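FORM 12-B: Structure-to-Sequence Request
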């Protein structure tokens, strides 16, 4: 009988998010309040507080349009004020962000699409 594999001390799990125009995507996320750190090789660490993802200069047709991220915030109305004031559609050529709205599954969500087509669900923390 083999010994069970010990559970690692995980410090982060970060998805790779595709970027068609890497520099444009970095600016987009910085405008949303993320910080970025270029890692080289077409990869940037994108962080907001303790949470983040790796932005990768990578574009396969159809992939980004089927890629979604979910983020929960404590005050969605306040964050919406910031998002709506950014004029993302004009500045980045993306679909306009949607105002926060209660969804049938019980979460208040705003939707934001990045320059590559990644759909962000930004939800109000429900406690």
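FORM 12-B RESPONSE
SEQUENCE OUT:
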């Amino acid at each position: 009988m083999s010994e069970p594999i010990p559970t690692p001390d995980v410090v982060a799990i970060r998805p790779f998010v595709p970027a068609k125009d890497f520099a444009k995507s970095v600016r987009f996320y910085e405008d949303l309040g993320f910080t970025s750190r270029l890692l080289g090789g077409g990869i940037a660490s994108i962080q907001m507080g303790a949470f983040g993802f790796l932005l990768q200069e990578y574009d396969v047709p159809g992939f980004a349009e089927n890629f979604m991220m979910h983020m929960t915030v404590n005050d969605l109305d306040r964050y919406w004020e910031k998002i709506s004031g950014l004029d993302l559609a004009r500045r980045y050529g993306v679909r306009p962000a949607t105002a926060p709205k209660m969804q049938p599954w019980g979460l208040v969500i705003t939707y934001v699409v990045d320059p590559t087509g990644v759909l962000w669900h930004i939800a109000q923390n429900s406690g």
